[in-house]
Amino acid sequence: MRAAAWLVAALALAACEREQRPTHAPPPASAIGSPSRPATAVAQAHNRYEENAYAVSQGKTWFRAYNCNGCHAQGGGDVGPALMDAKWRYGADPASIYQTIAHGRPNGMPAYGDRVPEDQIWQLVAYVRSLSGQLPSTVAPSRGDSLQDAEPEARRSKEKIRPEPPTNPGEQR
């Protein structure tokens, strides 16, 4: 009886699936190009982090850590452009977003390539693309509560339930 229970537990554990995480390195910096030299190798590049839920959530962490919220207001736009749609001036493909983050753009977007490691930039690219719905929902983290219409139930104040007064003054229970 005990052996059967262990066998069932072992089979149940073996049936669990784990997310496959690629272990190869991101494209080298030389393949990315520079603002004066367009990136040809990256134009067709596929961001390996876009299919990895953990990497996309790391991108969300970097988005906050590097204060991207300061200009992009969690993707909703503020000083910088909104990131909620795929209609971006410099392109919505991974290579264009990488170029924008690493090398900056005129009129406000600073270059972060010398301050942010390359793998973190690729994770940021994956997260930014998830904001506009360009990634499958299986890997995209949810948008922040501040972008929802209604306040989350967990943050709502708990109202005290008071007994209603009797309808007839002489009526007692």
Task: Give me some keywords for this one.
173 residues, mainly alpha, Cytochrome Bc1 Complex, Chain D, domain 2, flat
Description:
The longest helix is centred in the first third of the chain and has 14 residues, at about 1-15. Helix 3 (about 55-65) packs across helix 6. The radius of gyration is 24 Å and the shape is flat. The chain contains 6 helices and no strands. It has a domain at about 55-140: Orthogonal Bundle (Cytochrome Bc1 Complex, Chain D, domain 2), CATH 1.10.760. By secondary structure, it is mainly α. Helices cover about 35% and strands about 0% of the residues. The protein has helices at about 1-15, 30, 55-65, 70, 95-105, 120-130.
Short description:
With 173 residues, the chain is an all-alpha fold. Helices cover 34% and strands 0% of the residues.
Task: Supply the CATH architecture of the domain at 53-141.
Answer: Orthogonal Bundle
CATH evolutionary superfamily of the domain at 53-141: Cytochrome c-like domain
Structural class by helix and strand composition? mainly alpha
Largest sheet: none
Determine the mean pLDDT: 72
* Oligomeric state of shown chains: single chain
**SSE order in H/E notation?**
HHHHHH
Give the total of beta strands: 0
Determine the N-to-C terminus distance: 58 Å
Give the helix tally: 6
